[in-house]
Amino acid sequence: MTSSDPTRSRDRWQPLRELLAAIDAEIEDVYNARGLHGVRPRYAYPLIRLAHTGPLTIRELAESLGRTHSAISQTLAGMRREGLIDSEPGTDARTRRITLTERGRALVPFLEAEWRATEEAVAQLDDEVMPHALSQAVTATAQALRQRSMKDRISEQIGDAMPPPPPGQPGAEQGEAGDTTGEQNSTDGTSRPGPGGST
Question: DSSP per residue over 125-170, as a string?
Fold first, then answer.
């Protein structure tokens, strides 16, 4: 043991962790501002992927997203609590495949719109803060976001896209029944730097 605790000093990666957490919180603010509560930004990646692939086992989904089995299992547990996913028997008695509920599928068009809007917002940030060393880039990115928040950047890109109303609210059945874009739209499968790819 050394004479001082090195974890009590601010490490070089702390600003990056704080920045990613702040961006993640602002994406959630975008959801909340549109009446979508209880859905975490990290749910978007598996929801969109399942909408395009169909049911997958946890292992298959983890491999598809480049995540660990345990990390995806934790994310899926939260998604299940929010009524976004269910499961069905797999090809043998030992496996279960993850499926989207009606609510989960209804959210996909909005989440795809948010995903693309976030990618555009990140591209704008790249133009504003590059080229820099990573440590300088984090500081410059945080400063750029103080000038114009991630929430504002995403909101500008996302336009009028809205999530469907919660179950039991007026218009909920129409929003769920009339939505088929979640199966038709495509995604390039790339991960967001931080928020979208985090589990």
Answer: HHHHH-S--HHHHHHHHHHHHHHS-HHHHHHHHHTT--PPPPTTST
